[in-house]
Amino acid sequence: MAQYDIVLLTDSRFTVDNPPDQYADNVVLEDRLLFDAFDRKGLKTFKTNWDNPDFDWTSTKCVMIRTTWDIYDDGKFEQFQAWLERVKDQTRLINDYDTIQWNVDKHYLKDLEARGIKIPPTIFIPQGDNRSLEEIVESSGWTNPILKPAISGGGRHTYKLSDEKLKEVSGTFSELIQNESMLLQEFQHNVVDKGELTLMVFDGKYSHAVLKKAKAGDFRVQDDFGGTVHAYEPSPEEIAFAERVVSVCDPIPLQARVDFIWDNEGDLCVSELELIEPELWFRNKKGSAEACVEGVVKRWFLSS
Q1: Strand arrangement of the beta sheet that strand 4-10 belongs to
Q2: How many other CB atoms are there within 10 angstroms of residue 112's CB atom?
Q3: Is the pTM above the cut of 0.85?
């Protein structure tokens, strides 16, 4: 018999009860809200880092990937993939293994587009492409496009390519493209003027939202780069868009975060669909952790 019903996964920085800074404190708070919501459902919950060498993954019915934000650090992604391969046969993953493998690579944007979801105009640059970055940018016809890796998090190697930045990044691109694929996207000006909308969707249903804005002079909305988070009440159109994005996934993910912007034509388009380890801002909406937990219980515990 399993020792735990749910194990929440984090990285080793966030396993302590008294983290060293406010950023980490928010992470611990988010996990605590979820932990307490599971506890109120009578489920036995535990929290540990994904690369804990001493944990027996067969001892839990489910593993919920939450704040494993170190997996994109140098050398860690390969370790994480190897961990997934082992653990997928030892317990149930939330979200499931196939969803994780699909969502970890930004080529999923191409699949979303094929399913009728609008994304920013994007050029997918395959690993080993022998063209220079200058050639690719020139062929796009775009001014100040965005370059980013297909597999990354936290804004790693994400650049807005002004003429000066293009020259600066060209050598870095030539090195990166030998080992990983990249994306070039037309810059969407509204991300600076209006920000990026983030809607949380649990078991296919909208829960709550925030608006992320970049600091003055930047385009990246992540708090790592000075971005800020604001309360936001989405319109019915925006809620419907987020739920539609999630609805084209197969299977419907339990936890989803839909990041979208207004494109240069004023239409909504997906910038990211986060299904692996999204920050979900439970602390911003009372009852949202409970809404997430309800989906888990309904799917995997009421029927068991």
Answers
A1: 45-49, 4-10, 60-67, 92-94
A2: 17
A3: yes
Cα 251 off chain centre by: 17
Q: For residues 247 and 116, is the Cβ–Cβ distance under 8 A?
A: no
CATH of the domain spanning 4-99+289-300: 3.40.50
pLDDT for res 223: 57
- According to DSSP, the β-strands at 182-185 and 122-125 are antiparallel
d(CA 240, CA 29): 29
CATH of domain 190-274: 3.30.470.20
Q: How far is CA 247 from CA 242, 274, 289, in A?
A: 9, 14, 21
Task: Return the bridge partners of 183, or none.
Answer: 124, 148
* β-pair partners for 153: none
Per the listing, tokens 């694929």 go with 181
To which residue do tokens 């920000």 refer?
A: 195
Beta strand pairing call for 4-10 and 60-67: parallel
10-50, pLDDT tens digit by residue?
988 888 655 556 667 888 889 999 999 999 999 999 999 99
CB 86 within 8 A of CB 119: no
Q: For residue 244, how many other CB atoms are within 10 A of its CB?
A: 14
Q: Which residues contact 205 (CB under 8 A, 6 or more apart)?
A: 243, 291
- Secondary structure class of 201 (helix, strand, coil): strand
